[in-house]
Design a protein that fits this description.
heterotrimer; A mainly alpha; B alpha+beta; C mainly alpha; B: alpha+beta; Immunoglobulin-like; 6-stranded mixed beta sheet; 5-stranded mixed beta sheet; 1 helix; 16% helix; C: 68% helix; rod-shaped; binds copper (II) ion; Cytochrome c oxidase subunit IIa family protein (chain C)
């Protein structure tokens, strides 16, 4: 087994110029983590009832910052940094043209981020990152968000171009697994973000500029959630890339099956998008039948995750047995429990068990009424995004950043990284646990501290809100720790070579059927399913639309 | 494609569980009528106060319907009208609500009554109130600075 | 498809692990369903 500090030779090194592009994204991601995390800390403190915000800052302003920076900026930038490096590492150095397109994408997204952030800071856009028309933000906020999306398309195209080039140069061969996965994720992202782009460009911007007076609220929400669910899979799939491709290499094993990995990604592509109604289950104006149909499709998207769980355990068990493990669970002890690159994402995987179970409950049609818009939901996506995905990204940062900066993760930093993950686990268990429980009692999400007119029920929620503050404070300590490690890896760690670990496929696995890389088939199924799930209810929505809504600024 | 024996078992078990979940919620919805709130009733959001039943918010006893009471709510930033209602224990109640301005939530804490109120749409939900007590009604969809002060109270009395 | 007669890797631990996940999902789902039925 390779140790973290080992200076091995012969690694495939990501080209310096590509590394710079990837690092630019990673810088922005971690700046967003700091500011967004700070806002999260303020939120839990406010909600404990023990603290009020100074200087006229409102709860909903910091909530908007927290949501936009962590849900959209941290994720998209880290994902792009990771994906650019992964494509360059496995499909070859980007051409100058591809790299320039990558930079154009980066600056477009960044310009949009800055514009939107300024409007939020000026309290012109406290509409949360889900937009919530007919609350009406300043048009610059919407233009900023549109630029983020368009910039991500441009940056995504740079990555796709490399894949296309590779396929042309290697006809009849399956592409490098992680590059393939990157392209699946981008395909899903582009198809789904078309929805939010239509909402922003054709509804929100003309309406906020006063070119039109009224907005169709239900249509805007439907367009948003057409994007909003695949958005969470856009966060999750890069974590799955790490689990499928990188982790087997780190534990010294092999990828269980290349074919099954590709199959599960294609299933994500086709089933992640036509499911947005599971966020709109309690809304009027959509027939229960169409909601149920999308609930069925939502359950289908669970299946690739079931496949993933099996593949991961299998690669762990096979490796443990190679190392001489005996008994049913002996292999578990053989895993590299001292290597942060494994331990940190492993905690993320473990968190996905309760996260996934909660997600199935949320999507179970009328059962959604138990938890809809309660803080249970916040607890849920702090397990999926803020634990599963984020810990996997942290674990990846611990080899990705030193690989790109030409440094190494020292023993002490490796140790600190494991401590960081434990701090995160403790803080999140307390915070998310409290959110899940009190959500079942009915405590709402996205709400300032309130005693609800002295209601007895609401009084019972306060101890849980204090627990959330305790957990959230511990999580903020976790953020400080990870930023310290990241700063070290960027600027101070000893120079050296760090591997970008890419697993090899097990010799027992069978040859990958090329049908898994036949985009015509999969994209056709993807689009047909979207049309199937959305055409009739959307036509109904438009034909029966009530009078539209004028804009309100109620914050 | 070759798939390991255990993986086949696992996928069978997983897929069967999902199908069981879907059958249970499907039968509850389409056979027993336990749908999530999905009314398709439309209204001009700027004329809510003039249009029945919203010109007369409150609790109304009704005859000859599948429910005993109709409870009519009008939501607006940052109030519910009426601010408090009382219904008898064990009665079947139809909640009918809409909003005059932005999107609001309508949630009765500790119950399954949880629906979105969107301008232009009427939201409806029918249930039998089989627990006595005071239940907080609150807005659970962000609607502006007064969002967390937007409440009403459901009293189920014996 | 190749007709390898190679024996399958021993994956008992994997089977038990995923069965644990499956049980967890089933138990939590039915608890939530019970809550839904119990409430009005
Ligand atoms: Cu979703
Ligand atoms: Cu509200």
């Amino acid at each position: 087994m390779t140790t973290v500090t080992e200076k091995a030779k012969g690694f495939i090194q990501v080209d310096k110029r590509d590394a710079k592009l990837a690092l630019a994204h990673i810088y922005v991601a971690f700046i967003a983590l700091f500011i967004g995390g700070l806002c999260g800390l303020l939120q839990v403190l406010v909600r404990s009832g023990q603290f009020t915000l100074p200087w006229g800052i409102t709860y909903y302003q910091i909530l908007t910052v927290h949501g936009v920076l962590l849900g959209l900026i941290l994720t998209t930038y880290f994902i792009f940094g990771f994906q650019i490096a992964a494509v360059s590492r496995t499909a070859g150095t980007l051409t100058d043209k591809q790299r320039s397109i990558g930079w154009i994408g980066f600056w477009t997204m960044t310009a949009g981020t800055v514009a939107a952030s300024i409007m939020v800071l000026l309290n012109e856009a406290s509409v949360l990152y889900t937009f919530y028309a007919p609350l009406q933000a300043h048009w610059i906020f919407y233009v900023g968000m549109a630029l983020v999306v368009v910039g991500s398309w441009i940056g995504g195209i740079a990555q796709i171009m490399k894949y296309v080039e590779w396929r042309k140069a290697n006809p009849g061969q399956p592409s490098p697994l992680i590059t393939f996965m990157v392209v699946v994720n981008l395909a899903m992202w582009i198809i789904c973000s078309l929805g939010v782009a239509v909402e922003v460009v054709f509804q929100l911007i003309p309406w906020s500029l006063g070119w039109v007076d009224k907005i169709d609220v239900l249509l805007s929400r439907t367009l948003f959630w057409y994007f909003g669910h695949p958005l969470v899979y856009f966060w999750l799939l890069p974590a799955y890339m790490v689990w499928y491709v990188v982790i087997p290499k780190i534990i010294g094993g092999k990828i269980f099956s290349d074919a099954l990995a590709r199959l599960s990604f294609m299933l994500f592509l086709i089933f992640s998008i036509p499911v947005g109604f599971h966020h709109q289950l309690t809304e009027p104006g959509i027939d229960s039948f169409w909601k149920y149909l999308q609930v069925v499709l939502t359950m289908m998207v669970v299946i690739p995750s079931l496949l993933t769980a099996f593949s991961l355990f299998a690669s762990f068990e096979i490796r443990g047995r190679e190392l001489g493990a005996k008994g049913v669970f002996g292999w578990f002890k053989k895993l590299p429990w001292k290597d942060a690159r494994f331990v940190v994402p492993f905690i993320g995987m473990a968190a996905f068990i309760p996260a996934g179970a909660g997600g199935i409950i949320n999507a179970s049609h009328q059962m959604n009424q138990i938890i809809h818009n309660t803080i249970w939901v916040t607890g849920h996506f702090h397990l999926t995004l803020a634990t599963t995905v984020v810990l996997t990204f942290f674990g990846a940062a611990y080899w990705l950043i030193p690989h790109l900066t030409g440094r190494i993760l020292t023993k002490q930093m490796n140790h600190l990284a494991i401590i960081q993950a434990i701090v995160w686990t403790v803080g999140m268990s307390i915070m998310s646990g409290a959110m899940h429980i009190v959500g079942l009692f009915g405590a709402p999400r996205r709400s300032d501290f309130s005693t609800y007119g002295g209601s007895e029920q609401a009084a019972d929620w306060i101890p849980y809100q204090i627990a959330q503050a305790v957990g959230g404070t511990i999580l903020f300590i976790g953020i400080i720790l990870v930023l310290y490690i990241v700063a070290h890896l960027l600027w101070f760690a000893p120079k050296g070579k760090t591997e970008f670990p890419i697993g090899e496929v097990s010799e027992h696995a069978e040859k990958t059927p090329m049908v898994l890389e036949n985009w015509k088939i999969w994209l056709t199924i993807c689009i047909l399913l979207i049309l199937f799930a959305y055409t009739i209810p959307v036509i109904d929505m438009i034909q029966n639309a009530p009078p539209g809504s004028k804009g309100y600024k109620l914050w | 494609m070759h798939i390991h024996k255990y993986e086949k078992w696992w996928l069978t078990l997983g897929a069967t569980s999902l199908v069981v979940f879907l059958i249970i919620v499907g039968i509850s919805a389409f056979h027993y009528g336990s749908h999530p709130p999905s009314a398709k009733v439309y209204i001009d959001p700027e004329r809510v106060d003039e249009i029945a039943p919203f010109n007369n918010p409150g609790v109304h006893k009704v005859e000859g319907k599948d429910w005993d009471y109709e409870v009519v709510f009008v939501a607006s930033a940052f109030y519910y009208n009426p601010p408090e209602i009382e219904v008898p224990f064990g009665s079947t109640v139809k909640f009918i609500a809409t909003t005059k301005d932005v999107v609001h939530g309508f949630q009765v804490a500790g119950t399954n009554i949880n629906m979105m109120l969107e301008p232009g749409y009427v939201s409806e939900y029918v249930t039998t109130v089989d627990k006595a007590g005071e239940f907080l009604i609150l807005c659970n969809e962000y609607c502006g600075v007064g969002h967390s002060t937007m409440t009403s109270m459901l009293k189920v009395v014996e | 498809m190749s007709k390898k007669q190679e024996k399958e890797p021993e994956l008992k631990g994997t089977l038990y692990s995923v069965l644990f996940i499956g049980t967890f999902i089933l138990v939590t789902w039915f608890m939530a369903f019970y809550l839904f039925i119990d409430r009005f």
